[in-house]
Structures are given as structure tokens and as C-alpha cells.
Amino acid sequence: MMRFAGTGPLPHCLSDMPSMHKLLVAVIAFLAAVLALPSQAAALDRLRGFVEGTKSGRADFVQTVLSKSGRKPQNATGSMMFSRPGKFRWTYDRPYYQLIVGDGEKLWVYDRDLNQVSVRKLSTALGSSPAALLAGDNALEKNFDLKEGGTVDGIEWVDAQPKSQDSGFQHLRIGFVGDALRAMELTDSFGQVTTIAFEKFERNPQLPASLFRFTPPAGADILGE
């Protein structure tokens, strides 16, 4: 079972995914324009333009986790939003409710069934994670080696290889359709693949600051820093 550094085990639907501080939360997936003869740098240019021009975002998502062994895929649904730099909110509605909040300083993970909260410094949690691509700063090449990933089923992909050996995943693919964030695919060191498909992505919405604050519920166990 994946664990937060210095905390207890991750809750339910997060337990079979790369851990939040080494992957995301994340975020996450990006740009694709379907052209008859796309240029070699099309997807990379779109990714950089997306990150530079997108200060906030909101979308629903469907997440699928497929193990290397080929066992039945695990599915989860929810919604995400972010406000750069460093603020994001991921809500898992099914199969279990969980809330992940980055408030600019700390990362909070709340499991309602267990009434348990895990917390750690956000600067440590982001690093070379997918969340850094969305909610971090614009220095993409600082933490990732980026290259064109080709076009598959109308989605144009960017491959992002983490430079850190301690990122918690081996490979990240970010997919776009037009200028819309569409999908993210992560492969961890065990060969497990997590795919997140985004729906109804909204670029630069006005998001209240209160969405990116978290207060632990009364009586909750708090693990971490």
C-alpha cells in the first residue's frame, strides 16, 4: 500500500495510485489539435501556452487504475479545480468520498469514512509531480524532460519524464484536444497505469479563495507534519 512519507496509509481509492506527494494529486492531461500534417512541436507549444495562459481551471474527471497483472480496473469519479500557483482541490465522489486540497502552503488529504486527515508541506508534495504541471509555476523543464507524444484517437500527447528519481512514477502523458485539457496517463514503478479523463474543462473560471482552504473536521485524526 502506498504511504505518505511520515504518515499512515493512503485512504481507499488513493491506495492503488501513485501517492499524492509523489504524483500529484493531479493533477494531468493536456492539448491536442488534430491536423492533417501536425508540426513536430505542436503539442509542446500547446502545453507551454496552456500553462502560461491558464491561471485557473475546473473540470469533472473519470479515473481508471489498471494494474500490470491485468486485474479488473478500478474506477473513480469526481471533480477538480486549481488556481495557480500552488492551489488546487480534488474531490473524489465515488466509490468513496475523499478530498485533496493544496492551500498554497500545505497539502491536505481527508478521508471522510475514516475521519482521518493527512497533511504535509506543499513544496515537498509538488516537486516533480503531475500537480506541478497544473498548479505549479511555469518552469516545466526544471522538473520534467518534455517531448512530443504523437496523436492517438484525436488526442495529441506530450510525454513528460520526471527528472527526480523520487517522483513516485516513471512516466506521464498529457493529452489535449484543441486547446482543451482532455486526459492524463501515469505509469508508476510497478507498471500500474492511472488514466484520468477530463470532462467539461473550464479555463480561467473565477474561483473563490475559500475553495482552497481546509479546516480539519472536529475529532478527525491528523497525521503528518
Spell out the blueprint of helices and strands:
Layout: H1 42-53, E1 56-66, E2 74-83, E3 87-94, E4 98-103, E5 106-111, E6 116-121, H2 122-126, H3 130-135, H4 140-143, E7 144-152, E8 155-162, E9 171-177, E10 180-187, E11 193-203, E12 221-224
Parallel strand pairs: 6-12
Antiparallel strand pairs: 1-2, 1-11, 2-3, 3-4, 4-5, 5-6, 7-8, 8-9, 9-10, 10-11
Mind telling me the CATH class? Mainly Beta
The residue fraction in helices comes out at 10-25%
Global outline: globular
Number of helices: 4
Query: Strand-residue fraction?
Result: 35-45%
Using only C-alpha atoms, the radius of gyration works out to 16 Å
Number of domains: 1
Question: How are strands sequenced across the largest beta sheet?
Answer: 7-8-9-10-11-1-2-3-4-5-6-12
Describe the structure.
The chain contains 4 helices and 12 strands. A 12-stranded mixed sheet has the order 7-8-9-10-11-1-2-3-4-5-6-12. The two termini are 20 Å apart. The protein has 225 residues and is mainly β. It has a single domain, classed as Clam (outer membrane lipoprotein receptor (LolB), chain A), CATH 2.50.20. The radius of gyration is 16 Å and the shape is globular. The longest helix is centred in the first third of the chain and has 12 residues, at 42-53.
List keywords for this structure.
mainly beta; disordered N terminus; twelve-stranded mixed β-sheet; 225 residues; outer membrane lipoprotein receptor (LolB), chain A
Summarize, please:
A 12-stranded mixed sheet has the order 7-8-9-10-11-1-2-3-4-5-6-12. Helix content is 12%, strand content 42%. The chain has helices at 42-53, 122-126, 130-135, 140-143; strands at 56-66, 74-83, 87-94, 98-103, 106-111, 116-121, 144-152, 155-162, 171-177, 180-187, 193-203, 221-224.
